[in-house]
Amino acid sequence: MIGLRHLETLDAIREAGSLVEAAERLHVTQSALSHQLRDLEDRLGVSLLNRRTRPVRFTVAGERLLALADQVLPLMRQGLRDIRSLATGQSGRLHLAIECHACFQWLMPALDRFREQWPQVELDLSAAFAFAPQPALLRGDLDMVISSDPVEHDALLWLPLFSYELVLAVARDSVLAARDFIDAQSLADQTLITYPVERERLDIFTAFLDHAGVEPAQIRRTELTPMMIQLVAAGRGVAALPNWAISEYLQHDLICSVPLGKQGVWRTLHAGIRREEAEVPFLQEFIQTAKQESLRGLQGIRAAS
Amino acid sequence: MIGLRHLETLDAIREAGSLVEAAERLHVTQSALSHQLRDLEDRLGVSLLNRRTRPVRFTVAGERLLALADQVLPLMRQGLRDIRSLATGQSGRLHLAIECHACFQWLMPALDRFREQWPQVELDLSAAFAFAPQPALLRGDLDMVISSDPVEHDALLWLPLFSYELVLAVARDSVLAARDFIDAQSLADQTLITYPVERERLDIFTAFLDHAGVEPAQIRRTELTPMMIQLVAAGRGVAALPNWAISEYLQHDLICSVPLGKQGVWRTLHAGIRREEAEVPFLQEFIQTAKQESLRGLQGIRAAS
DNA sequence: TCTTTAAGATGAGATTTTCTCATGATAGGT
DNA sequence: ACCTATCATGAGAAAATCTCATCTTAAAGA
Q: What's the angle, vertex CA B238, arms to CA B235 and CA B244, rounded to 5?
């Protein structure tokens, strides 16, 4: 019935004072404006402006439409600017989920640095312990998933961040502390301290114990890595943790770490995003930042070992 | 680039939850919406919504456009309503100009009644003593002119309101008071009291004295009809006024009135409007109201005579 | 797991809208 | 009274938008 084109035309006519001049500004012919205006007037059933004066004079109805233009056009322009900003990846949303508890340790500094560099990006972090992150990523609830168990999918892209070794944290005075590596059997009489998530999500089971059909003597759960360390240090149990997650404690000689099995258990953390967003600048940037941050952690480990 | 159609489509999709349902509501095919959406996404360079979920999920960019729709669409709808109201003549503007001083007398009650009946119409009154009202009417500054000197014009419509007699108001004890009528010569030794406007706008000259080539001995000017009456009653001069303008004073025997010339000087008041607005309801209504109001004045005269 | 079903995507062609070109009409300035 | 600049108009071209028919795919049911 009445479109933005009409509002823009009326606005231009007001600024220009005549159809001819307005047509030039809008890069169309005077004829186009004349037709357009006449069609609009016919459909609305009102005269919008008196073309016989110089500059042209708007009727009451014309003034009303100009007021409408003054309200609507700036809103549209701002909306379009925002969309462009989103499209070019200058602003946007990064809803992030992590599947591993320990990741907070290297993630937090990375997030801080990212926030500084991309203040326009709405950042949100959730722990994906209680739900499956892949479907959420696919449907757009999430924009990135940090996981060591990437599930391949056509619409997803999994980018490796870094590899790490899952090691067993043991008390310094434990009999296990002296071993070059630990076999599964050795855990049969130990208390294992884990994060409180399903067993299927714990690498110590899926990548080590289940293979050998071994079950620890007891399982204790806690959410907090520092508390885990305290329990281990006190000889109340052992915990399987990423090497970078405990490097700090190793340096302070609070605990010892021993590889799991002769080859050790190695895992790789991946960042998963939707393939369609592969080119979004701030996503690429974030992954770079995350890699750098994890590198610092690894350097710490080298220094410690 | 981005039109109202798109905003309406997105809004409908949000309400409906799917393209198919939204297409039904908008009375187009699902295909149309699919094409429309894809074109928009291509042009903007962003995905707007994820069609694979039920209901569909909007991306950040999509949400931004929906927010825009929520701002813009209500404004457009209200604007359209206002225009319709203007188009059907339920609201509008009546900028009125009168060319005769005395007209205020019958116009004021008419305006009061009109204001009650058409509160939506913006009413404005100006006295057209210092400018030419016809051009202002043509160019849209005015919407109606009350004049006893209608100038015919293709784009204008002059509707007669009522006829009146221009009479000479004289003191009761004046020698002129006894006359059946007054000839031009009789004014040669009189003081004539007029409104302070150009001589060409005074009927007493153009329609009576100029004919006979007579000039009054003296001319006095005043803006206010009651003051004119007081001066006349005090024998300080005579004044040419419409019969209805002085009926009240005649009834109270403050002054006398005498016809100008044997046939009297008769004039007809007209309401002039733009021909294109001939059908505007509140203009027709106003003219009706004005006629009725003037009729009351004439009844007063009959009662007085 | 295999159907079934409903939704969305796509290409071609029809329809509608909007524009340009060429020309006519008109008002204001000289 | 004649220019000159402005707006109007009709016909046809160009562009945008829609429909129809058909395909692909995801999710629900057997």
A: 115
Average confidence (pLDDT) over B212-224: 93
The structural domains of chain B, with segments of one domain joined by +, span 4-87, 93-305
Provide the CATH topology of domain A4-87: Arc Repressor Mutant, subunit A (1.10.10)
Does the distance separating the beta carbons of A80 and B139 come in below 8 Å? no
For position B97, what pLDDT does the model report? Answer: 92
Whether B132 contacts B83, CB under 8 Å: no
Cβ(B225)–Cβ(B245) below 8 Å: yes
Tell whether the model's pLDDT for residue B28 goes beyond 70.
yes
Report the top-level CATH class of B93-305. alpha beta
Give the closest nucleotide to B138 (alpha carbon vs C1'). C27
**Chain B residues in contact with A67 (beta carbon < 8 A):** 79
* Min distance B103 CA to chain A CA atoms (Å): 27
Q: List strand D contacts in A 104-133 (CB < 7 A).
A: none
Core vs surface per residue A230-256: b (16+ CB within 10 A) or e: ebbbeeebbbbbbbbbbbbbbeeebbb
Partnered with residue B165 across adjacent β-strands are: B266
Tell me if A192 sits within 8 A of A204, measured CB to CB: yes
Length of chain B: 305
What backbone torsions phi and psi does residue B294 show, to the nearest 5 degrees?
A: -65, -35
Higher-confidence residue of A296 and A169: namely A169
- What are the residues whose beta carbons fall under 8 Å from the beta carbon of B285, sequence distance 6 or more? B114, B117, B118
Identity of the amino acid at A221: R
In degrees rounded to 5, what are phi and psi of residue B124? -145, 140
Most B-contacting residue of A83, A122, A153 (CB-CB within 10 A), to test interface: A83
Facing residue for A64 by CB, picked from B1, B64, B83: B83
Kindly report the pTM of this predicted structure: 0.81
Both tokens of A91, joined, read 């602003």
Q: Distance from CA of residue A210 to its chain's centroid?
A: 33
Q: Residues 281..300 of B with a Cβ closer than 8 Å to A: which?
A: none
Q: Is B178 exposed, middle or buried (0-12, 13-18, 19+ CB in 10 A)?
A: exposed
Whether B120 and chain A come into contact, CB under 8 Å, resolves to no
Q: Give me A124's structure tokens.
A: 């949100």
> What is the spatial distance between Cα B249 and Cα B256, in angstroms, rounded to a whole number?
9
Residue A302 reports pLDDT greater than 70: no
Q: What is the mean pLDDT of residues A122-134?
A: 86
The 10s digit of each residue's pLDDT in B61-74 is: 999 999 999 999 99
Of A59, A75, A93, the CB nearest to B140: A59
Residue A126 (CA) to nucleotide C29 (C1'), in angstroms, measures 75
Pure H helices in A133-224: 133-139, 203-204, 210-212
Domains A4-87 and A93-305 share a fold: no
Residues A65 and A122: their CA atoms lie apart, in Å, by 37
A53: the nucleotide nearest its CA (via C1') is C27
A86 to chain B, any CB pair closer than 8 A? The answer is yes
B55 CB contact with strand D at below 7 Å: no
